[in-house]
Fold this protein.
Amino acid sequence: MSATFVREQLVAPMEQPRSNVGTPAWLQQKLFGSVLNTVVTIISAVIFAALVWPAIRFMLIDAVWDGSSRVDCLAETVGRPVGACWPFIAAKFAQFMYGFYPAEEVWRINLTYAIGIVLLAPLLIPPVPYKVLNAILFFGVFPVVAFYLLIGGVFGLPHVETRVWGGLLVTLVITFAGIIGALPIGIVLALGRRSSLLLVRWFCVIFIEFWRGVPLITVLFFATYMLPFFLPEAWKLDPLARVLIGVILFAGAYMAEVVRGGLQAIPRGQYEAARALGLGYWKMMAFVVLPQALKLVIPGMVNSFIALFKDTTLVLIVAIFDLLGQLRASFADPNWATPVTLLTGFAFAGMIYFAISFAISRYALYVERRLSTGVAH
C-alpha cells in the first residue's frame, strides 16, 4: 500500500533572475564582479578623474581660442586662469605641418599626402580587389613619385632642399621610409640567421647584433657627421638621406629578431610538408612558412613600427626638425612667450602622436582578428 503526500502550502515564488544582458549586467560582471574588482575599479576611477579632469580644464574649459599674440593668452588680459593657448597653434600650424617648405609649393606636399591616402586605403580595406597591383603602386611607384614631388627639379617643379623640410612632413617621411625599408631587410636577415650556410649566418648575426647594440642617437650622429669622411667627394649624400639609411638599417636589425621569433614558432611539420610537395626553399618560405610566421608576429611588428614613429623625434639632435623639433623651435618666438605656451605645444604634439599610434595599433588588432584561424570571415 503506497502513501500519497499532498502539499497543503504553495511553494514560495523564486526571485526574479538578474538580467544577463545590457549595460548594468556588463558593469556588474566586468567592473564589480568581486570585491577585488570593485576596489580596483574605484581606485582606477579616482586616478582617471585626477588626471583627466585637469587635462580637460586646461585644453577645453580654460583654454583661449581666439587671439593674435601672447597678450591674448595672459591671465592678466583674460581676467581668469588661462589654459591652453590655441591661437599659438593656429599661428604656427603651417610650420608644424611643413616646416619651412616654401608656402607657394606646399600644394606638392598635400598632393603627396592625397596620392598616398588614395593608394593606401584600398590596401587596408579587405573587399577592394586588385591588391597586388595596388601594393606595387603603393610600395614601388609611390615612393618614387613622392620623392620627385617633394624634391622637385623635374617637370618644371622648383628644387626644394631637404634642409627646409620640417614638422610632420619629416616625421612621416622618416617613418614611412623606415617601415618600407626595415621589413624586407628584417625578413632577409631573419632567414639568413637561420641559414645552413655558415658565412651567411655569421654575417647576419654580426649585422643584427651590431645594430642592436648601438643606440639610435649614435647611429644618427655617425650617419650625419662621420659618414661623409669615409665617402668619396662624389658620393656625398643629402643629410636627410643619410638619416634615412641609418634609421632603415637600425630598424631592420630589430625587425629581423621579430621575424625570427615567428619563424621559430612554425612547427617543423610545415617545412616537411612543403618539401613533400616538391617546393624549393624560396617557394616554401614565400608560400608556406613566411605567411604563417608574419601572421604570428603582427603585434611585434606593429610595436616596432610605433616605436620607430616616435623615435623620429631623435633626429632633432642632428639638426633635422621633425614635428617635435619644429615645435621646440617655435617656443623661441617672443611673440608667443607665455606661461602656457610650452604645455600647449606639447599637448598638441602629444595628441598627434597618440592619434597616429592608436590608429596603427587598432588596425593591427583588426588584422589579427581577421587572420586568426578558426574565425569565420
Summary: Residues 175-320 form a domain with the MetI-like fold fold (CATH 1.10.3720.10). Residues 70 and 333 are 10 Å apart (CA to CA). The two ends are 66 Å apart (CA to CA).
